[in-house]
Amino acid sequence: MIVVYFDTRPKRRREDLYDREKELSEFQESLNSNNSLTVITGIRRLGKTSLLLVGLNELDLPHVLVDFRGVNPNSRMDVYKRIESAVNTFFRENREIWSELKGNLKNISGLQVLGFGVNFSWKDEKTDLIALFRELEKYNVVLAFDEVQYLRGPVGSEFAGLIAHLYDYSELRMVMTGSEVGLLHDYLGVDDPEAPLYGRYFHEVSLSRFTPEQSRDFLLKGFEQVGIGPPEKLIEDAVERLDGIVGWLVLFGRKAMEKGLSRGLIDGVFDEAKALAMSEFENFLAKRVAARDRYVEIMRAVAGGKRTWEEIKEHLERKEGKSIADSVLARLLKGLVDSSFLEKRIEGRNVYYVIPDPILEACFK
Length: 365
Description:
Largest sheet: 5 strands, parallel
Strand content: 5-15%
């Protein structure tokens, strides 16, 4: 039987994408309106890439998809190799375009045309990516960049400048996704006049977690697809503990298929998911060694119910036995919020912080 909802691969058909009709329509409308830049945001594991692929496939739009997850932002080679791989995948899947285009590609500086595909250069004579993308523009190709917030530093700024040039001087449609929402907004120059992309309009499609009702229906329909009738109590426990994060609900469904239904199933899913969530947080800490202990203590404070600015500050000061400047705490909280490990919520005059991923929250309790 074909697995749809519990398939861990990004979805490519509408019927595989559960209950994202509103977001899908909004994304497709942005593309149909010829917006130069569309941005898909949402915390980790909500299905941004699936929404992107379903939207493009339904509109039958040829597209180059570059996955920047885990890219080394200080390595031009790494960035160029990611783009090279995506372009060659595009040519393999669109052989007619390749046949018509390969003659023109020989005139692009820094680009070597092979028997089938291309090689990039990134040193003395860098591949002219603008010229390459302008050639693809002739075929109405959409440029899609997944998890763009990983592009930081000089190479990331260089790439942002390239996007800004295409925005201003081409009719290409571009899409960016990002799970570290604040960092993506920083990359887009939302509040920074010095950023290469500052002042350029983009349409943002934001994904939210499932409601408890949606989570329950998602699991029931997924189990129905694979011929499993789960106990109601198991479904309710999964909905409560996995709290609307699509990726964790999918993992729960896959584990049920592999190992069968049992009382320990959710605990097993939790253990595996916690290891993955903490690995991602450790990657965040590895780039911020000097403030590592403070980031950890903030997460512990919020997981333990200390969620206001005052409560978090008191927690840190008690741990360190000294005062902490407001500006320092503001910088620490911004780092966690920008990376989507914390979420800042405002209700009336009350401002507080939560850990949006229930698995990560459990790690710090």
